[in-house]
Amino acid sequence: MILLSPLVVYYSYSGITRRLAEDIALITDGDLRELKPQKPYSFSYNTAVKEAREEIEKGYCPPLIQGAETIENAEVVFVGSPNWLKTFAPPVLSFLRTVDLSGKKIIPFCTHGGGGFGRMIEDYKKECKNSIIKDGIALKGDYSFDELKTWLDSNL
User: Fold this and answer.
1) Scanning 17, 69, 116, 121, which has its CA 20 to 30 A from the CA of 138?
2) Could you give the dihedral angle defined by the CA atoms of residues 11, 14, 17 and 19, in that order, rounded to the nearest 10 degrees?
3) CA 151 to CA 107: how far, in whole Å?
4) pLDDT digits (tens, 9 = 90+) for 48-62
């Protein structure tokens, strides 16, 4: 049996979630896919929070210029986001609603400042009814590579 490389899909605003995604891809020999919205969020953090809050409250799915390509070969898809207002960033919602993830094993990951996953796992289950949602891992920005590797080794 040929094991296919996992796909590591992520949205990162400041680079913290990107680093986590890159580390997951390195440890699992996965392929990286960054989600890029057509209109980037403001460079001003406070303005970006306001923009994200409006989108999340409306359930808005920003159009993606990168990342919404179909997934055919990956059986395992890591999906990552910063914790924004207790859920994933709107570009992740766009990905979940655009790409067919039926039958895929979804392993959520997030970076946070103390809120863990918030309600992300419930939101993944709601958006990916035909997928297998695993527990996933929520890490603060100052996580250690060894901490991540230990978790991946014992959960994959």
Assistant:
1) 69
2) 120
3) 12
4) 999 999 999 999 999
The amino acid sitting at 16 is I
Cβ(111)–Cβ(82) below 8 Å = yes
pTM (two decimals)? 0.95
Tens of pLDDT, residue by residue over 61-98, are 999 999 999 888 899 999 999 999 999 999 999 999 99
